[in-house]
Amino acid sequence: MSANETKTNGWTPVPVSGKQIFQTRGDISTPTPVTVADVYFPSDVALVADAQAFVKKRLSPEAFNHSMRVFYWGYVIGKQLLPEHAAELSPVTWALTCLLHDIGTAEEFFTSTRMSFDIYGGIKAMEVLKVLGSTNDQAEAVAEAIIRHEDMGIDGTITFMGQLIQLATLYDNVGKYEGVDGFGDIIHETTRDSVNKTHPRLRWCSWFAETVRKEEGNKPWCHTTHIPNFDKEMEANILHKQWE
């Protein structure tokens, strides 16, 4: 493991509290409008293309589009909130994390294990990436971020990429962050429109709210119960309502 991999694969430690990061950062500049066409998605890299094909074959259309949107939300949020870390993060590692972060919701995995979907999904992602040719460090970084992507909290630290996937998924799922005023405004409305139209939501919030209820019903011990009223919070998502 090299020191460079620590940064490019998103291992840099940051507070697990997103609110603390926002408070430390202070005033954030008005976001620049960007479109999907302005952001490099590394589909020209064989590893990313293979991972994308793997998840597209297994995820529902709703979950696949969500995973693509999360890539763009995270790209903008990272540059706005922690630009020094975002500048060093590999777009390939970030793309792999986004593509695979909900692989645990795929039908063939969702009911075949008693494990929580995010935890099992992280393990499955690591297995798949190693088969596809990822380095061990990259595969482990992706797995760590996926396993902790619902692990919101107050105390302790998390990898930068783990924090970024938390913020990006919350942005898509509920459009707000507890204790952070104006969380939705960290991304320009032009960008929201471009991303949501390029990768349609397909009533994502309703679909995932129902998925959460299924998991909590079938696995009352699951990690998703860590987020109170998650299903209702998604169904009340105002930020993306016009695109639902």
Written overview of the protein:
By secondary structure, the protein is mainly alpha-helical. It has one domain (3-243). The protein has 13 helices and two strands. It has helices at residues 3-8, 18-25, 46-58, 61-81, 83-86, 91-100, 107-110, 117-132, 136-147, 160-173, 189-198, 204-218, 230-235; strands at residues 13-15, 157-159. Strands 1-2 form a two-stranded antiparallel ribbon. Helix 6 packs across helix 9 and helix 8 (117-132) packs antiparallel against helix 9. The relative contact order is 0.18.
What strand line-up does the widest sheet have? 1-2
Main β-sheet: number of strands, strand sense, barrel status?
2 strands, antiparallel
Q: Helix coverage percent of residues?
A: 55-70%
Output the radius of gyration.
16 Å
Residue share in β-strands: under 5%
Mean pLDDT: 95
Shape: globular
Which terms summarize this structure?
244 residues, two-stranded antiparallel sheet, 57% helix
Task: Summarize this entry quickly.
By secondary structure, this protein is an all-alpha fold.
Describe the SSE topology.
Blueprint: H1 3-8, E1 13-15, H2 18-25, H3 46-58, H4 61-81, H5 83-86, H6 91-100, H7 107-110, H8 117-132, H9 136-147, E2 157-159, H10 160-173, H11 189-198, H12 204-218, H13 230-235
Antiparallel strand pairs: 1-2
Helix pairs in contact: 3-6, 4-6, 4-10, 6-9, 8-9, 9-10
Protein name: Cyanamide hydratase
Domain HD: 63-174
Pfam family, one: HD
